[in-house]
Amino acid sequence: MIVVTGATGHLGRLVIEGLKQKLPADRIVAVARTPEKAAGLGVAVRGADYDEPATVEAAVEGADKVLLISGNEVGKRVPQHRAVVGAAQKAGVKQIVYTSAPKADTSALVLAPEHKATEEAIRESGLPFTFLRNGWYHENYGQTVRQAVETGSFVGSVGEGRVSSASRADYAAAAVAVLTGEGHENKIYELSGDVAWTRPELAAAIAAAAGKPVTYQDLTPEQHRAALVEAGLPEGTAQFVVALDGNTKDGLLGETSGELRALIGRPTTSITDYVTRAVEAL
């Protein structure tokens, strides 16, 4: 039995759908904080709250494999993830798969520390593990695409920094491949898109899809933060976005390992294809 946490999130839903194409539905369990939201997934559903370890233990009981999709509450992830790891350890699962971040144990990426701590907790548990160090998602730029189409421009502070992003569906397919395949125990996969692109290249892709001029304006970090605050973002959120752009400028999101392509057995979705679909959906 495979248990998928965070099953009602965007990634979780895609993983469930992928697993159903490979396995009987009765071998898949979706775990969600709000079970009602998982009613249409077509698999067994168990409720669990990461902040209540007893509910997590009940959710993973009987599991052979657990996919721990990282939580979305930045700052609370480590204790929440530890609850899942502890429950998996108690259940004696044969493999725990975790969606981590690029080079989580060594990277200066602003998001890395919580992923590093989670990886350490999994190693300490003694459970066979697989770390899927997911790179950036195309979907992270959905709002950028919308803004660019509406206004003809967007800003940032990444300089010539590149992003080797892939689609959420690509990363979900990798998780399915690991959960249903053999020989992935105690392995780490650095996952990224096949091509690393710059912001001017993103602007060109949006312009081509929208049939109108689109430009990217590169700002200093200070100018970028001020622009975000003026646009209504809280100070802390603005600083976080600027920090991520700084990480991008430093090349922390631009490596192309080829490991995602190898796992899913096909090229990753291009940023151009994503942008085209995103513009069509507007």
From TrEMBL:
Pfam families: NAD_binding_10. Coiled coil: none annotated. Residues 6-180 form the NAD(P)-binding domain. InterPro entries: NAD(P)-bd_dom (IPR016040), NAD(P)-bd_dom_sf (IPR036291), NmrA-type_oxidoreductase (IPR052718). This is SDR family oxidoreductase.
